[in-house]
């Protein structure tokens, strides 16, 4: 299965037009996807809407990956052009995604702290091949002009850029000078897929405005739906190629012929246990009951958290006020745990829940706090 995600409803509709018999698939948390097949009926696609911004896009992307275990993920929609040579309606396929809002503010200006994700070589090669043979154009709306397809970096931040002379626009131009387009969601998608290393990901954007103060007029000329349709056409062709590549990969076929695949899944119910399920095994193998893992030590985890918090503060990832408040909650939790009583553990849990709220914007630290909470609950 391929997952295709979009940020806007018009982008969603542009992709949905290429699906046959889409059916609602409801995630347990309430997110609604639609699952259908590409127009030729051979490949299944899950389509989802992430909304605006990098933070929600990361959450929904991770949710889609966990729900569908896709063979590839595409993020499709519109973007603003950053260069005169990138015209309205053109399709930009990302070679890199820049999270351009990382930086440190100093007396002499804003210093960039770049964060970038590079698109996998295989998916980049497939996209370039599609561009060369031009078969993707058959997915364009009837009578539509064939747009140019460009390959280059895309910058993703948290603001709608509609100026070429503002301080923000100049900073992006000077710092991320090779970016062809700018938008607001790809960094979140790239971050989520980065944590799923084997998952190929591509970002396909149609140019709907020039990010230069003329957005209102270009939107009024319906460039958003035109650009979305162009991006969807290329993305659907890319999805078909990726699905075919996954199905026809020679190495995979050879393993399947011998009853072996890269991915294996067991579902054990009631008192059933899985011993070994494997392909080729080299070396000695022992099968038996493994000793139960030792419970994590909450006190040691708190010490590690304090060190990580200090490093994050030094790197200016955590501001001064948050750092001070977080240090206070860590101290309360550590002191309460040292009482070795149920009441003390309960006090520690309350302090840690407050701490998790304080650090919600720093995903790694918030996850560490959640792990400590789980460890404490395990000994209650």
From TrEMBL:
A Pfam family cross-referenced in the UniProt record is PNP_UDP_1
The cross-references to InterPro entries, in alphabetical order and at most eight, read: Nucleoside_phosphorylase_d, Nucleoside_phosphorylase_sf
In what residue span(s) does the Nucleoside phosphorylase domain sit?
2-238
Q: What is this protein called?
A: 5'-methylthioadenosine/S-adenosylhomocysteine nucleosidase
Tell me what organism the protein belongs to: Nonomuraea spiralis
Taxonomy-wise, where does this protein's organism fall, top ranks first? Bacteria, Bacillati, Actinomycetota, Actinomycetes, Streptosporangiales
